[in-house]
């Protein structure tokens, strides 16, 4: 959220200006979502590598845009990275050190920890925790161990084709503490926006 705010506002922006820019950004996001929904309804995603079970799995779940991002990371993992070290620290925990194939340009490496029983995975880049999508390092570890599917916990519903249906479907609306907190935040955002508009009118009158 901080990155978004810094991108649309300046240090000298007024409170009203911040809200107006935020509203424009939200409108643009909604328009992009409509375009993505339309594209997804036109048919299934084309799988570039037909015999790859992981790509088949993701193509049936993700939107076209998110599948494209996933596929780019998949290609980088397959053709741009290699496993330098691969060792077990316990019966099920595997540690892999992953580097770029072209070490002359970049000698950086990432450490991936994979539980072969639960398929839980963690990469030192922490990009999944940040962006909610598996990056090339984790995907390289999965394919290196000849795994043919990705656990559901690493396929966020937010990026799926039917994400909106699961949100707005009446049967899925459960009253919980988190929902109450979200409703409260939405109410306070609307109240703050209305207050900013009133302040703008007062400034004009003065």
Automatic annotation (TrEMBL):
<keyword id="KW-0863">Zinc-finger</keyword>
<dbReference type="InterPro" id="IPR006564">
    <property type="entry name" value="Znf_PMZ"/>
</dbReference>
<comment type="function">
    <text>Putative transcription activator involved in regulating light control of development.</text>
</comment>
<keyword id="KW-0479">Metal-binding</keyword>
<dbReference type="InterPro" id="IPR031052">
    <property type="entry name" value="FHY3/FAR1"/>
</dbReference>
<dbReference type="GO" id="GO:0006355">
    <property type="term" value="P:regulation of DNA-templated transcription"/>
</dbReference>
<dbReference type="GO" id="GO:0005634">
    <property type="term" value="C:nucleus"/>
</dbReference>
<dbReference type="GO" id="GO:0008270">
    <property type="term" value="F:zinc ion binding"/>
</dbReference>
<keyword id="KW-0539">Nucleus</keyword>
<protein>
    <recommendedName>
        <fullName>Protein FAR1-RELATED SEQUENCE</fullName>
    </recommendedName>
</protein>
<feature type="domain" description="Zinc finger PMZ-type">
    <location>
        <begin position="121"/>
        <end position="148"/>
    </location>
</feature>
<keyword id="KW-0862">Zinc</keyword>
<comment type="similarity">
    <text>Belongs to the FHY3/FAR1 family.</text>
</comment>
């Amino acid at each position: 959220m901080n990155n978004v705010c810094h991108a649309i506002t300046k240090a000298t922006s007024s409170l009203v200006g911040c809200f107006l820019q935020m509203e424009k950004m939200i409108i643009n996001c909604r328009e992009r979502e409509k375009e993505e929904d339309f594209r997804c309804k036109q048919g299934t995603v084309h799988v570039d590598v037909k015999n790859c079970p992981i790509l088949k799995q993701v193509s049936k779940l993700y939107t076209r845009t998110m599948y494209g991002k996933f596929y780019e990371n998949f290609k980088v993992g397959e053709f741009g990275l290699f496993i330098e070290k691969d060792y077990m620290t316990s019966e099920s925990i595997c540690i892999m050190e992953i580097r770029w194939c072209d070490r002359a340009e970049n000698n950086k490496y990432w450490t991936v920890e994979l539980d072969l029983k639960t398929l839980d995975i963690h990469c030192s880049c922490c990009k999944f925790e940040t962006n909610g999508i598996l990056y090339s390092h984790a995907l390289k570890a999965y394919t290196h161990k000849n795994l043919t599917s990705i656990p559901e916990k690493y396929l966020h519903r937010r990026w799926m084709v039917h994400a909106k249906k699961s949100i707005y479907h009446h049967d899925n609306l459960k009253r919980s503490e988190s929902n109450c907190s979200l409703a409260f935040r939405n109410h306070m955002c609307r109240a703050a926006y209305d207050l900013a508009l009133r302040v703008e009118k007062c400034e004009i009158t003065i």
